[in-house]
Amino acid sequence: SFNFSTMKRIFSIIVNFLLPGFVLFILSPSATFAQVTFRRPIDNLRNPPVASYYDNNGSAAGAVDYRCSAQTYNNHQGTDFLPTYFAEHVLSAARGGVYSIYDLCPTWGYWGSSCGGRFGNHVRMDHDGNLLDGVGTVTIYAHMLYNMAGSWVNRQIVPCGYFIGSAGSSGSSSGLHTHFEVRRRGHPRDDPYAGRCNARGI
After folding, report:
1. What does the pLDDT look like over 110-168, one tens digit per residue?
2. Is the peptide bond before 192 cis (omega within 30 degrees of 0)?
3. How far apart (Å, rounded) are the C-alpha atoms in residues 85 and 41?
4. Best label site of 53, 104, 107, 172, fewest CB within 10 Å?
5. What confidence tens digit (pLDDT) does each residue in 63-75 have?
6. Quick check: 178 and 142 in contact, CB under 8 A?
7. Cβ-based burial of 76 (10 A; exposed 0-12, middle 13-18, buried ≥19)
């Protein structure tokens, strides 16, 4: 007969076996991509440590950083860290694979330069999935010195905090800094200053 004990067994089967598979099916486009957190890509920073933050307004008119102020510029898609000195080590912000490098630009670029897709000499890392296909969560480390953009780690998986390049001013750049950018599924996201402007400090 159909009693309370039978109902408990059916409920247990649904919860433990059928429901997880159904949820995974619904979320399958993003189910394999975990949330990744990052450290700063530069250890030794000037004071203040950041020249320009991520623009939360995107391509819309006006630039608004995470503090609701304007220490950024229109459609800036990352965070510009200010190294203490020229050739400061740039470090991997999380464990991942170096899936792409570009190292053909002069060390000193200029505002508006298209070299390296405006990033100048740069390294791109993949932080989830198979770690070397550039799909999922990706970080970009831009404006490095010529001949110092990760050739020794290209196509390798490296731990968090690993030396991947040296800070410079190549590409579209008006001075020494490291542009750090996070993309998820090809779309720019900022870390650690994500989302709408708020009261969090650096």
Report:
1. 999 999 999 999 999 999 999 999 998 999 999 999 999 999 999 999 999 999 999 99
2. yes
3. 14
4. 104
5. 778 777 788 888 8
6. yes
7. buried
Distance CA 52, CA 67 (A): 12
* DSSP assigned state of 161: T
Place of tokens 């001075």: 175
Q: pTM higher than 0.70, yes or no?
A: yes
**Length of the chain in terms of residues written:** 202
- Contact predicate 173/120, CB 8 Å: yes
Identify whether the C-beta of residue 164 lies closer than 8 Å to the C-beta of residue 158: yes
The predicted structure's pLDDT at residue 7: 58
